[in-house]
Specification:
One of its GO terms (molecular function) is mannosyltransferase activity. This protein is mainly alpha-helical. The protein has a domain at 52-126: Serine Threonine Protein Phosphatase 5, Tetratricopeptide repeat (Alpha Horseshoe). The protein has helices spanning 5-25, 35-38, 46-49, 55-68, 73-85, 89-102, 107-119, 123-131, 141-153, 157-170, 175-187, 191-202, 209-221, 225-233, 238-253. Helix 1 (5-25) runs antiparallel to helix 13, helix 8 (123-131) packs antiparallel against helix 9 (141-153) and helix 11 (175-187) runs antiparallel to helix 12 (191-202).
Length: 278
């Protein structure tokens, strides 16, 4: 791959349309339920334990419970999360919105609803709902991090970084928060600071593949394409690693930013738009 100014320019232009997606993609890290954000609803029922890990099957199980009793908070939470995991994000937001109306003081449901709004690009509404999901006296670092991503999407980068800083006071060196902070710097073209922050995240044993891909994006943006490819391959299976590198090369070679879109193949994990459900 040649290092050319046109490639670097294409990559920079791509950020305006794709990097914000990457910011949200790393918001919570891992394919976990919203109970990981604010704690469970306090249920240890056999019904909850019997829910399968497969998100499509979970959507069926929780969906049946939800339709039988739409005011069941646990069913609504599980159903909304399963819908998010299967890409039905508009429906997830609708289910969780109704659940928060039925249970206006339930902070776990508020957190889930706020995250669903963020999924759908409703950044201001997401921020407002998430602000009700925890309190300054008892802040939740995961919610702080997601609030930061919503602010970044609204272009309020300095304010977003204050939220990341607050989260990091609670969980120092947490890789998912550092990843969001690094991408925030990337959005304002502070690339050395972005790389330094993402390398801190990358060095953490708990960093997942998305952190590695975000680092690859920032390294590639600075013209170090061979290094970016090496990072992009990371610990992925051979087919996904090859797809990542191919996509990175394609992205760098294009000059028309309107055509720079993540591929539709769900088996591919694009470098700059890791749209995995959290």
């Amino acid at each position: 791959m040649r290092r050319s100014s046109s490639h670097a320019g294409s990559f920079a232009r791509f950020l305006t349309s794709a990097a914000v997606t990457a910011v949200l993609a790393a918001g919570l890290g891992g394919c976990k339920t919203m109970s990981d954000i604010t704690g469970s609803l306090g249920s240890s029922s056999s019904k909850a334990e019997a829910v399968p890990e497969d998100p499509r099957r979970a959507a069926e199980v929780y969906g049946e419970r939800y339709r039988a009793n739409p005011k069941d908070a646990e069913a609504a939470l599980g159903y909304g999360q399963a819908l998010r995991a299967t890409g039905q994000r508009t429906q997830a937001a609708a289910v969780l919105e109704q659940a928060t109306i039925a249970h206006p003081g339930n902070k776990t449901l508020l957190a889930a609803y706020g995250r669903a709004l963020a999924d759908n690009g409703n950044s201001q509404a997401a921020f407002d709902v998430l602000s009700r999901a925890h309190t300054p006296a008892n802040p939740d670092w995961r919610i702080l991090s997601v609030q930061g991503t919503t602010l970044d999407k609204m272009g309020k980068h300095e304010e977003a970084r204050r939220y990341y800083a607050s989260a990091l006071k609670i969980v120092p060196e947490e890789p998912s928060v550092l990843s969001n902070l690094g991408l925030s710097y990337m959005l304002t073209r502070e690339l050395p600071q972005a790389e330094e922050t993402l390398r801190r995240a990358y060095s953490n044993p708990r960093a997942d593949a998305r952190v590695r891909q975000n680092l690859a994006l920032v390294v590639g943006l600075q013209g170090r394409f061979a290094e970016a490819e090496t990072i992009a391959k990371g610990d992925l299976p051979a087919d996904e690693a090859a797809a990542n590198v191919a996509y990175l090369r394609e992205m760098l070679s294009r000059k028309d930013k309107d055509h720079l879109r993540p591929p539709g193949n769900k088996a591919t994990v694009p470098v700059a738009a890791l749209n995995r459900p959290d």
